[in-house]
Amino acid sequence: MNVVTAHIGVPTCIRLPREVIGMEKEIRNGFAAAVDGAFKILKEQRMFSILTALSSLLLLSGFAWNWQADENVENASRAAIGHFWDAYHGNEYDQIPQVQAELQRAIENDPNNPTLYALLGAAHFWHIGEAARDPNPTDPALGQDMPEAVDNFGKALNLDYYTKHFIGYINDDHLPGYLGITTVHLGQMTNDPGLIAKGDQTLDFAAYQFPEFNNFNRWAAHSTDGKDSASYQKALDSLWQGIDSCIGGKIDRNNPDVKPYLNLLTAVGRKKACWWEGVLAPYSYEGYMLNLGNGLVKAGQVDAARIVYNNARYAANYNTWPYRSVLEAIASSDLNARAALYDSGNAQTQPALGVPSRGCSYCHATVAEKGQYSCSQISQSACASRINELAGEQRAGFVWSGVGGLSVNDLEERRELVFGGRSSSKDVANVPSLQDQGIGNQGAVTAPRDGFGAHDGSWRGSGDLHQGVEAFCELRGGHIVGVTAE
Hints:
two-stranded antiparallel sheet, 2 strands, disordered C terminus, 19 helices, globular, single chain, mainly alpha, Serine Threonine Protein Phosphatase 5, Tetratricopeptide repeat, disordered N terminus
């Protein structure tokens, strides 16, 4: 058989039979001729005109894309998102029912939008987290708030992590933190240790994914546990780990002054969650320091707590913080006497670890409440007295004990009211499992996330509605000192 040598750009040669080469040429030439012929037929028979006419018929038959309807859906979603943030920043707790209804209507028409579910979950969490503000303490809606929060955060997470998105989409690593903390609280309310453990597992994953932000959620989930318990020690250490993540090192636990790290302040990227004046949680830094200071007092570390309280004053917007008077009243009080109050096992006598009776507002609200927590016209001692009164109001009703937990002594009574007895959480919520989903490097078409800061626009109602969430209850400020996302 005669052969030819064909060079393919490398020293190696391929020897092809002459008959094969002839066959390949014949096929190639035949294909080219067929293509040329097809184009000639299309030209001659004016097929392009025919195809255009067919397209018009399809449009008239209802196959057209309804651009107007799609735009209306997007506008409705944006409006619902904007209403949420207006109420949240405006400290308008009484607007929560209207906000929830608008978000629910938007979800019916835009069911694949994770932001809508996340904000609906946040609205429920806000409602129960500040239940002392509800004029009706037996409001049936309070009984469904925590299960609804878990359900909606779970849906938001599933949509964000496990559905396909356009290239460039940034996953929202705040969502595991929100799902985790609400799951823990639901387990606490229903006396379900398994559910608490499931929430803790989710929180550990969340803190691994986004330590600057989600370590606060781990704190908030167990801040009301006994001061000598392992769970409380882990919670308090999570606050330290959050700061460590922000500064890229380990802050001195005995002298935790953040002044040497203020040069790290940033308004972009993941680290912006560590600081102040974020678009969505402008006072999260101050709220974080309030929680850490109170947490240290509870642990008997009064000297370190004083330094932490002073850290809050470094914030450029500290003087405009609506809840500044709370921190100042505590910092100027007898902290040793305050620490002694945590020795009692009676949660009713223990001071709140955040702003009494408040959860989300003191990190997100840009305006003061009507008549509450305002000490601008009274003396420091009178202010301290007023804060103590409000703390008493908190302990008297069903409200959060501090930032992220229910008053332990209220749980049994609330369980009877809310769930009609010792209900299992299985009766009220189907909690998604991160472990079952196999969270890891999900979504081959998804870009690595850059932190909540990337979502400032979408949560505020501008930008891609199908991008993530920001900090609401951050769990009340889940930002810290270093630099990160919001």
